[in-house]
Structures are given as C-alpha cells and as structure tokens.
Design goal:
By secondary structure, this protein is an alpha+beta fold. It has one domain (2-148). The chain has helices at 2-7, 16-25, 44-51, 75-80, 139-148, and strands spanning 30-33, 55-66, 84-93, 100-103, 117-124, 127-132. The longest helix has 10 residues, at 16-25.
Length: 152
C-alpha cells in the first residue's frame, strides 16, 4: 500500500471510536475496508453508519469473478481489474446487485439478493465505501484498492 500513501492523502483508523470521530468530522471520497474485521461485533456501529444493510456472509476460499453489471461508472477502470482471482475471504451479504464487484461464479446471478460478494462498493454521500473481504490481503487487493482510489 506504499503507492497509495505516496499518491493521495490517507487517514488510517484502528479503532471504532476513532473511525466514528473521523466520519463525523470528514467527508472522505473513498472509505476502504481492507479486511473482515468490520464484521466484529464491536465494529458494527461503523458499518451501520455507512451501509447498515451489509452483514457478514460466509467465509470461503474460492475463485471469484468480476460482476460485469456492477456500478463502476468508469468502464475503462473496470476493464483494468482482474477478471477473476482466488482468495480466502469473509464475504458480505446484503449489497445491492450493482454493488457486488467480485462474486462467486457458482452462486445465483449477482442480481439475486442471496448472492454474496467478496468485494463490494456502495455510493455513500459524496463518496464510496469499498469492502474487500480477502483475509490474506494479497497483491490483488492492493491493485483493487488503488484502482478504487483513482490511482493507476
């Protein structure tokens, strides 16, 4: 994530209280949730503040594929994302169909509300919330996070 820190202003918060204070005082363009810790009971207030309808899904190790009907306005950026990759992830359940960026190709269609997402993105206020459930935070995660932050 060195490239992210060199390319833009990044605020990293490590506790629920500091995250809530930051969100009350700031309007970030992108909020990246880089791991599954957001699903811990003590962190639920943060998720409730930004997208209360997202809840913890299943923990799976699978190949996921990009959802071509997702809500990425910049189709050029979408074309640069990996078509698919293998990851161990804590999926998120509840994103709207267009918010699901990477999904299990063996699940029902992304339009089905039962389909969970390993990576999801929701419009929140003037910015976006990006969830990446990869528990190992590999280089694929870095590429996705950078692209969603507008860094090539």
């Amino acid at each position: 994530m060195e490239k992210l820190h060199k390319s833009t202003e990044v605020t990293r918060v490590k506790t629920t209280n500091s995250a809530m204070r930051f969100l009350e005082a700031n309007t970030p363009k992108v909020i990246v949730i880089p791991d599954h810790g957001i699903h811990d009971d003590g962190n639920r207030a943060i998720l409730d503040k930004v997208v209360s309808y997202w809840v913890m899904g299943d923990y799976m190790s699978k190949v996921v594929w990009a959802n071509v009907s997702c809500n990425i306005e910049d189709r050029e950026m979408f074309a640069e994302l990996l078509a698919g990759y293998h990851l161990k992830a804590l999926y998120v359940h509840g994103p709207q169909p267009a918010e699901k960026i990477y999904v299990d190709p063996t699940d029902p269609f992304p339009e089905n509300e039962e389909t969970q997402a390993a990576v999801a993105r929701a419009k929140v206020g003037e910015g976006y919330l990006v969830y990446i459930g990869d528990v190992n935070s590999g280089k694929e995660f870095d590429e996705i996070a950078l692209k969603f932050c507008g860094i090539k």
